[in-house]
Amino acid sequence: MSFEASNAEIAYCPRIDLAVVIPTYNERGNIPELVARIEEALTGLDWELIFVDDDSPDETAEVIREYACRDCRIRLIHRIGRRGLSSACIEGILATTSNYVAIMDADMQHDETILPRMLETLRQDSLDLVIGTRNAEGGSMGQFGQARVMLSRMGQKISNTVCQCRISDPMSGFFLFNRSFFNEVVRQLHGGGFKILVDMLASSERPVRFAEVGYTFRSRKHGTSKLDVNTGVEYLFLIIDKLTGFLIPIRFAAFSLVGAAGAATHLALVALLMFHFQWHFMSAQVAATFVAMTENFFLNNLITWRDRSLRGLRMVTGLFSFWVACSFGAWANVVVARSLVQSGARWYMAGIAGIILGSVWNYSIANLFTWQMPKRARPAPPLEIPAYDSELVP
């Protein structure tokens, strides 16, 4: 059979006007109403709905899969062993062929009824993206308390330091964009955390053409908010990453910040033990060292290596290996600093060199041993597909 004949028999795939990508984690209760709302809002458009689920314990993926079996416009990407809103959005975007893609949350706090207006605005004005905003004309934070509003405003000010444009709601998780713009920035994306819009804006090498459409932020009906300490930490790492231009590995920057906190604890404890409890300096130094290393371990477990966080017995063995790693790092710090001083270097330069060497050592060993990457399961052997008999093929 010729290529031309085969190609002619391929079924025509209709153009998709809009793909809506929705990352999910424990959103089982919201899926039925969310699907119904989007179907109603996008009446008259050729659309597809792509859910990207991070293996939700409440079996959100199973609910979505049932809808996908009944409606080919609904698709599921079920991720196992990966976690994160931004990376989920990126995978969902790459999975669609549509030239126009929208991102929104699964908690129904975003107003799906403005999607057609956002798409029309993007097309008519040849824009890069259109943002659903809570902070401009027609927008509102709804019934959220003053503390949440203040937190959003603070995030807005921080975000505008790295974005390539001034927008009213850079913290928005509800926006629609042109695929050509995404293709421009995708290889510069940080890909971590929860603020994919800030990541895209900060990754652009040119002024971004954008518009904003106001909407009222609704209250969550089912499930629980994902806003916690780690969300703030992820956001901070994104900002640092964009400000430093990838010069400093973000995990090493987090490790250094945790180390600075440990150094402050160390000095404060030495002073307390010496001047209040009358301990000898060496005794206070040893006690403070172990307290600071222990504090650093738990903070690093919570923040720096949160994606490989240790639990149960592994936390005990991890703490021991971290003590050993930091002990060698401290020894290397002292040896290098002393050698530099003896060779004529100024004491503060020697001290800084020792700290840098010790930090790099501690980070490297902790990364390799304490929080080593989990071993991948051995891949299954390839399926043996029997050769077909060409005489049986019509």
UniProtKB/TrEMBL annotation:
It is found in: Membrane. Residues 255-371 form the GtrA/DPMS transmembrane domain. It holds the Pfam family Glycos_transf_2. One of its GO terms (cellular component) is membrane. Residues 20-185 form the Glycosyltransferase 2-like domain. GO terms for molecular function: dolichyl-phosphate beta-D-mannosyltransferase activity. Keywords: Glycosyltransferase, Membrane, Transferase, Transmembrane, Transmembrane helix. GO terms for biological process: glycolipid biosynthetic process; polysaccharide biosynthetic process. The chain crosses the membrane at residues 252-275, 281-299, 320-341, 347-369. PANTHER family: DOLICHOL-PHOSPHATE MANNOSYLTRANSFERASE SUBUNIT 1. This is Dolichol-phosphate mannosyltransferase.
